[in-house]
Design goal:
It contains 9 helices and 14 strands.
Length: 274
């Protein structure tokens, strides 16, 4: 069986205006305050995933790494588990946003996972390594992409269709948030863990699918993708890991509620074994 461990790249605050850019502000504020959340500092963990298949050590996303004032929390978490960066043989990057790729480099700007095969969706790689498309994103995102992605080229696998990355770990095409956004399913022993990445950014997005964030590149496609994933998660009663859902370890289940859904968090244990 596969052993899965959620890795915490700390908790970061987001303003309501970014996470719910296209929602009625009064309703969002009321919903947040009803849950004891400050609308100007919505807690958002960055939750990466380590998968031990017995034959492979797979890391899905890297967190912020040493970008800005960050201190490489994912590397710290791995070392706390007795895992050296060189032990990771497969690195899956779900998309090119800096909170997912910032940790590809270590403190010395060298590859943090030097022995890993790096896996991205082809259209995502093309977007984040093109000067033309990088000109359309915030400047600090482009800076991190230019630093973090080209060094991965030597050991790079670009996906164009859904596939099994290593036995038990499956790539799922989930475009919308970004052009080549990827989610990951871990299937082992008749159980399944679905890693949403950024297909949904907050539990309220499940209850109100039209309350979209400012971060989706293609809003219509992002909503359609989220609906497809959440329908699957609810129907199959799959354990779900959502990268940004508070509290860490961002694990739970999705319940169907008419044309929307509700998040049921599972706060313990941090380790799941599909």
């Amino acid at each position: 069986s596969c052993d899965c461990l959620a890795l915490n790249d700390r908790v970061h605050p987001y303003p309501m205006s970014r996470l719910f850019a296209y929602a009625p502000a009064d309703q969002v504020e009321q919903a947040l305050r009803a849950n004891g959340v400050d609308p100007e500092a919505i807690p958002s963990p960055y939750t990466c995933l380590l998968i031990n298949t017995g034959e492979h050590l797979v890391l899905v996303d890297t967190g912020m790494g040493y970008v800005g004032e960050n201190r490489g929390a994912v590397l710290e978490a791995l070392r706390a588990e007795g895992i050296a960066p060189g032990d990771i043989d497969t690195l899956v990057l779900t998309h090119g946003h800096l909170d997912h790729i910032g940790g590809t480099l270590d403190r010395d700007c060298q590859l943090a996972f030097p022995k890993a095969r790096n896996v991205l969706w082809k259209s995502e790689w093309e977007f984040w390594t093109s000067d033309a498309t990088l000109a359309t994103v915030p400047a600090h995102w482009a800076v991190v992409a230019r630093a973090s992605l080209p060094p991965l080229r030597e050991h790079l696998t670009l996906l164009e269709e859904e596939t099994e990355i290593v036995p038990g770990v499956h790539a799922i095409a989930t475009p919308g948030h970004t052009v080549g956004h990827m989610s990951v399913a871990v299937i082992s022993g008749g159980q399944q863990l679905l890693y949403l990445s950024d297909a949904a950014l907050h539990p309220l997005h499940l209850e109100h699918p039209d309350w979209q964030s400012a971060y989706d590149q293609d809003r219509a496609r992002a909503v359609a993708t989220m609906r497809r994933l959440l329908d699957r998660a609810a129907l199959e009663h799959t354990l779900v890991l959502a990268f940004h859902f508070d509290p860490f370890p961002s694990l739970g289940h999705v319940e169907q509620r008419g044309t929307s859904w509700r998040w049921q968090p599972r706060t313990t244990p941090e380790t799941a074994a599909p």
